[in-house]
């Protein structure tokens, strides 16, 4: 498999510390949170050291609002982005903040989330399992709403499926949306890996393209990450889907009829902060220290 790296010249995405961010406490009151996030200031362009040329971001505002390359490169001075995506003052991380607001067509929840664009500015060039892909990240959940034992969940990484135009037309769907084969949740301090499996493995070539043909299968890593930084790696290659926590401390590996059948779909990576509630007054903050994609 050949590799194309969407990273900075240093080999990984690095964010320099230079702008204000919310407090580091894991959970605060909504009032405290609201008073802080409105203060996100401009950051000197000369200090920005991050390559976002192959990512667009979806925000919890507008219809919703999406910012693509090259505009996303100026996130530190873009008024649309400054509240939701900014460089941390307290550590070398890129902060993704979200709260209930606008959602995408196929969701009820809001997000501040990156979407891979292999060709900058385009959603039509994606990858298959046969072509393969790897995403590595170092991140942490810094704050989230809720109470102890009942914190709101966040999706921090995904592999999302996409229908080709021919597949879309075959099943009579009016968009190219396919289910996400992989969703990685931060759930009360633990990591829940959810992959798609077929409801019926004898499904036809046409029926398999429908979201109704698939369901979630959940697998928790044993380690508790809490509010500390952790490393995640996702690798899809051929019929194998592998997810690794903290440089091999734990690994989930899937190679079966479900990953084999998933080969009909195109895919793209997602990373960021996808809050799994629409309740008033909720919020979440996810910090990324490193992010790297290879094909």
Explain what this protein looks like in three dimensions.
This protein is mainly β and 295 residues long. The chain has one domain (30-294): Jelly Rolls. Helices cover 6% and strands 39% of the residues. It contains 3 helices and 17 strands. The protein has helices at residues 30-37, 165-170, 257-261, and strands spanning 55-58, 66-67, 85-87, 94-98, 111-116, 133-144, 146-147, 150-151, 154-162, 177-187, 190-198, 214-224, 230-237, 240-245, 250-254, 266-275, 284-294. The strands form 3 sheets. It has an 8-stranded antiparallel sheet, with no helix packed on it. The radius of gyration is 18 Å and the shape is globular.
Taking the sheet with the most strands, its summary is: 8 strands, antiparallel
Low-pLDDT parts are 1-49
Average pLDDT works out at: 86
Tally of extended strands? 17
CATH-defined topology: Jelly Rolls
| Number of contiguous helices | 3
The total tally of domains equals 1
The CATH class designation is Mainly Beta
Portion of residues within helices:
under 10%
Order of helices and strands: HEEEEEEEEEHEEEEEEHEE
Any idea what the shape is? globular
Tell me the radius of gyration: 18 Å
Q: Architecture in CATH?
A: Sandwich
């Amino acid at each position: 498999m050949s590799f194309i790296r969407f990273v900075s010249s240093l080999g990984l995405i690095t964010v320099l510390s230079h702008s204000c961010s919310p407090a580091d406490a894991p959970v605060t009151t909504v009032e405290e949170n609201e008073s802080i996030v409105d203060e996100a200031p401009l950051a000197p362009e000369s200090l920005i050291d991050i390559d976002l040329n192959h990512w667009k971001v979806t925000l919890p505002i507008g219809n919703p609002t999406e910012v693509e390359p090259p505009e996303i490169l100026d996130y530190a001075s873009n008024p649309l982005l400054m509240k939701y995506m900014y460089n941390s003052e307290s550590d070398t991380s890129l902060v993704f903040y979200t709260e209930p607001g606008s959602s995408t067509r196929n969701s009820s929840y809001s997000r501040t989330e990156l979407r891979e664009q292999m060709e900058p500015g385009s959603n039509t060039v994606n990858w298959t399992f046969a072509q393969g892909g790897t995403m590595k990240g170092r991140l942490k959940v810094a704050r989230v709403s809720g109470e102890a034992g009942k914190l709101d969940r966040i999706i921090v990484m995904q592999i999302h499926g996409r229908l080709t135009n021919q597949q879309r037309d075959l099943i009579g769907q009016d968009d190219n949306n396919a289910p996400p084969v992989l969703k990685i949740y931060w759930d009360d301090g633990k990591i829940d890996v959810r992959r798609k499996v077929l409801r019926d493995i004898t499904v036809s070539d046409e029926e398999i393209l429908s979201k109704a043909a698939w369901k979630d299968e959940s697998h928790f890593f044993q380690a508790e990450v809490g509010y500390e930084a952790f490393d995640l790696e996702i690798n899809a290659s051929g019929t194998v889907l592998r997810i690794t926590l903290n440089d091999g401390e734990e690994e989930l590996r899937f190679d079966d009829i479900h990953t084999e059948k998933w080969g009909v779909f195109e895919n793209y990576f997602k990373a960021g902060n996808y809050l799994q509630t629409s309740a008033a007054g909720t919020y979440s903050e996810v910090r990324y220290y490193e992010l790297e994609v290879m094909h």
